[in-house]
C-alpha cells in the first residue's frame, strides 16, 4: 500500500502517533487509506448538500474494506461571482484545486481517492488532479438542481439573468423579476440546465470516471445518496483490481467525451477544460478537433438554455448512458475504453434505453446533424474561438455587422442596457482573456442583457473572455490570441465590419492585412489590471484560451 510509506515500520512510529490522535484503530492502520475530496461549503448552492454525499461515500468505502479520510477542496459559485470583480477569481480556482489536491494526496500518501465536486471549476480541477496523481479514483458529484416553475413553465438561472435584461427593456415589471428571483432556483444542486457544472459532470460519466447517473440524478433525490455509497464501494473495487485514473482517462476517452459533448450540447467551457485534462496525460488537445467530430456527431439534446428541457428530464429519459448508446450504435464512440465500473464503455451501456425521444432525440431524428459546438477561425481569431451553435438561432448562423468595441464587460453592459446597441451590431468585449482579465471572466450578464432586450436574434457578441453555459445566442468566446498579447481582437476599431459564418467555421474582420499591420505597429500593451496577489501570478503563468488556459512557465507558454 502507498499509505505504508506514512504508516509502516519503526521509522513511521511518530506518524502513527498522529494517526492515533486521529482515532485510527490498529485494524484501520492495515487497511487502504482512501482520501475523500469534499468540496462542501455553505456559499455555493451546488455544494451545500455535499456533506451528505461525503458521509454516504464514507459508508461505501468502509463497507468495502477501506478507511475513508476527508479533506477539502475549494469551490466558487459563478452565479454569485458574476458581474463584478469576483468573476476574475473563478476560472483561476481550477488550477488551485488541482494543485492543492495533488499536495494533499501526496503529502499524506493516500491509496485511492473519491472526488466529490459539483460546480463549474471544481469538476475539471479534480479531473486534472486525478489524471496527474494516477491513483484509483472515482467521481460522484453533488447533483443538479431541480428546475424552477414560473407561471406554469420550467425555468432556471439563465431565465433569471434574462429577466433582468427584460426589465431594462421595459418588458417585465419589478414584480415579475421578483417572482423569477424567488422561484428559479428552488433546491440545492448545480443550476438545472446544461450549463458548465452539469456539462462537466455529464462528461465525467462519458470519460468513464463516474458511475451511471453521476451527471443527471437530481441533488435532492435519495438515489444520489445510494450512488455515493456505490462510488465508495467502486473505488475499493478499482483498488483491488489495480485500475488507476490514467487507465481510464486516455486519449480515446477524451475523444469520447468530446463526442458526447457535441450530442448533449454542452457549455463552451468544456473547450477550456478538456484540453487542460488532456494536458495532464500528455495529450496535446487541439480545440480544432471539435470541428470534424461536430460534423459527424448529431446534436441529440436541447437542454436549457438551448431548449425547454432540464437535467431532471435528461435523467428520466435515460441519462448520459442513453445518449452514449445512441452514439455507439452508429459507431461514434470507442466502446473499449475502461471505466470506474471495472467494465468497458460498451459493457456499461449495452442495455441503456432512451425513454423519451423528445429529450434525447434518436440519431435518425436529431435536433441537428452537427454537434453543439464549433470552433471558428479567421483573421480575427487565428488560433480559434468557440461558439455553442446549438444555442444560436438560424438567422444568426451567418451574420455581418459593425463592431461595437468595449475594453471591459462593464462598459458593454451599460451600453446594452442603455439602448446603445441596435439590431445588426457585433459587440466586441476585449481585454477579458486569461491574461488580460486576468481570469477570463464569463460574459453571462451581457449575453443575457442582449437576449432580455429582445436582440438575441439580431446582435452577436465576440470576446476573448468566455461564456457561462447559460449563455445563448451568437456568443463567440475564447478568441485567441487574446487582446492582452496583441491578438487581432485588440486591433478592431469601432464600426469595422465583422463577418460571422458558423456553418463554415469562419470569423473574419473585414479589414485588409495592410491596415491590420499598420494598427499592430501602433499597438501598445496595456498596464496590468492587477499587480498583487494570486491574479498577478496567474496572469504571468496562464496560456491562451485555445490551450485551455493551462498554466505554464513563461518559456513554455507558446509551446
Task: Report what the structure shows.
With 559 residues, the protein is α/β, with parallel strands linked by helices. 38% of the residues lie in helices and 13% in strands. An eight-stranded mixed sheet has the order 7-8-12-11-10-9-13-14. Strand 7 and strand 8 form a beta hairpin. Helix 8 packs antiparallel against helix 9. It is globular, with a radius of gyration of 23 Å. One of its GO terms (biological process) is L-valine biosynthetic process. Belongs to the IlvD/Edd family. Homodimer.
The CATH superfamily of the largest domain is identified as Response regulator
Shape, please? Answer: globular
Number of helices: 22
User: Order of strands in the sheet with the most strands?
Assistant: 7-8-12-11-10-9-13-14
Distance between the termini: 37 Å
Estimate the mean pLDDT confidence: 96
Q: In what range is the share of β-strand residues?
A: 5-15%
| Strand segment tally | 14
Amino acid at each position: 500500500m502507498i499509505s505504508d510509506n506514512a504508516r509502516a515500520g519503526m521509522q513511521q512510529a511518530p506518524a502513527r502517533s498522529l494517526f492515533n490522535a486521529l482515532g485510527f484503530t490498529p485494524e484501520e492502520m492495515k487497511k487502504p487509506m482512501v482520501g475523500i475530496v469534499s468540496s462542501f461549503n455553505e456559499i455555493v448552492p451546488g455544494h451545500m448538500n455535499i456533506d451528505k454525499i461525503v458521509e454516504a461515500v464514507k459508508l461505501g468505502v468502509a463497507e468495502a474494506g477501506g478507511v475513508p479520510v476527508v479533506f477539502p477542496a475549494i469551490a466558487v459559485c459563478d452565479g454569485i461571482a458574476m458581474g463584478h470583480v469576483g468573476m476574475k477569481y473563478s476560472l483561476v480556482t481550477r488550477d488551485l484545486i488541482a494543485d492543492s489536491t495533488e499536495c494533499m494526496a501526496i503529502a499524506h500518501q493516500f491509496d485511492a481517492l473519491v472526488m466529490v465536486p459539483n460546480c463549474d471549476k471544481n469538476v475539471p480541477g479534480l479531473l486534472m488532479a486525478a489524471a496527474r496523481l494516477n491513483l484509483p479514483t472515482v467521481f460522484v458529484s453533488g447533483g443538479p438542481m431541480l428546475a424552477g416553475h414560473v407561471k406554469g413553465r420550467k425555468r432556471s438561472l439563465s431565465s433569471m439573468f434574462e429577466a433582468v435584461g427584460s426589465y431594462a427593456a421595459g418588458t417585465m415589471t419589478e414584480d415579475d423579476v421578483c417572482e423569477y428571483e424567488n422561484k428559479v432556483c428552488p433546491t440545492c444542486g448545480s443550476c438545472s440546465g446544461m450549463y458548465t457544472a452539469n456539462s462537466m459532470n455529464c462528461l465525467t460519466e462519458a470519460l468513464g470516471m463516474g458511475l451511471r447517473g453521476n451527471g443527471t440524478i437530481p441533488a435532492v433525490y435519495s438515489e444520489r445518496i445510494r450512488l455515493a455509497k456505490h462510488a465508495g464501494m467502486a473505488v475499493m473495487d478499482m483498488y483491488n483490481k489495480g485500475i488507476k485514473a490514467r487507465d481510464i482517462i486516455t486519449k480515446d476517452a477524451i475523444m469520447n467525451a468530446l463526442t458526447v459533448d457535441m450530442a448533449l450540447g454542452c457549455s463552451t467551457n468544456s473547450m477550456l477544460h478538456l484540453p487542460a485534462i488532456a494536458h495532464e496525460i500528455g495529450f496535446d488537445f487541439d480545440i480544432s478537433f471539435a470541428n470534424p467530430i461536430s460534423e459527424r456527431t448529431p446534436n441529440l439534446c436541447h437542454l436549457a438554455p438551448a431548449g425547454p428541457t432540464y437535467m431532471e428530464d435528461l435523467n428520466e429519459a435515460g441519462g448520459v448512458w442513453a445518449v452514449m448508446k445512441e452514439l455507439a450504435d452508429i459507431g461514434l464512440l470507442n466502446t473499449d475504453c475502461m471505466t470506474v465500473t471495472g467494465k468497458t464503455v460498451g459493457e456499461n451501456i449495452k442495455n441503456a434505453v432512451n425513454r423519451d425521444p423528445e429529450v434525447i432525440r434518436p440519431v435518425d431524428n436529431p435536433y441537428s446533424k452537427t454537434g453543439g459546438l464549433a470552433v471558428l477561425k479567421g483573421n480575427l481569431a487565428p488560433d480559434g474561438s468557440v461558439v455553442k451553435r446549438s444555442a444560436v438561432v438560424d438567422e444568426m448562423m451567418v451574420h455581418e455587422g459593425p463592431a461595437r468595441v468595449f475594453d471591459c464587460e462593464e462598459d458593454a453592459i451599460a451600453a446594452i442596457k442603455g439602448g446603445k446597441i441596435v439590431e445588426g451590431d457585433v459587440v466586441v468585449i476585449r481585454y477579458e482573456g486569461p491574461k488580460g482579465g486576468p481570469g477570463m471572466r464569463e460574459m453571462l450578464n451581457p449575453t443575457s442583457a442582449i437576449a432580455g432586450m429582445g436582440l438575441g436574434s439580431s446582435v452577436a457578441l465576440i470576446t476573448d473572455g468566455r461564456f457561462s453555459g447559460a449563455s445563448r445566442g451568437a456568443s463567440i468566446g475564447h478568441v485567441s490570441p487574446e487582446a492582452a498579447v496583441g491578438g487581432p481582437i485588440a486591433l478592431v476599431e469601432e464600426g469595422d465590419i465583422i463577418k460571422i459564418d458558423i456553418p463554415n467555421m469562419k470569423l473574419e474582420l473585414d479589414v485588409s492585412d495592410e491596415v491590420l499591420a499598420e494598427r499592430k505597429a501602433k499597438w501598445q500593451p496595456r498596464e496590468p489590471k492587477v499587480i498583487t496577489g494570486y491574479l498577478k501570478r496567474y496572469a504571468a503563468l496562464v496560456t491562451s484560451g485555445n490551450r485551455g488556459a493551462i498554466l505554464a512557465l513563461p518559456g513554455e507558454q507558446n509551446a
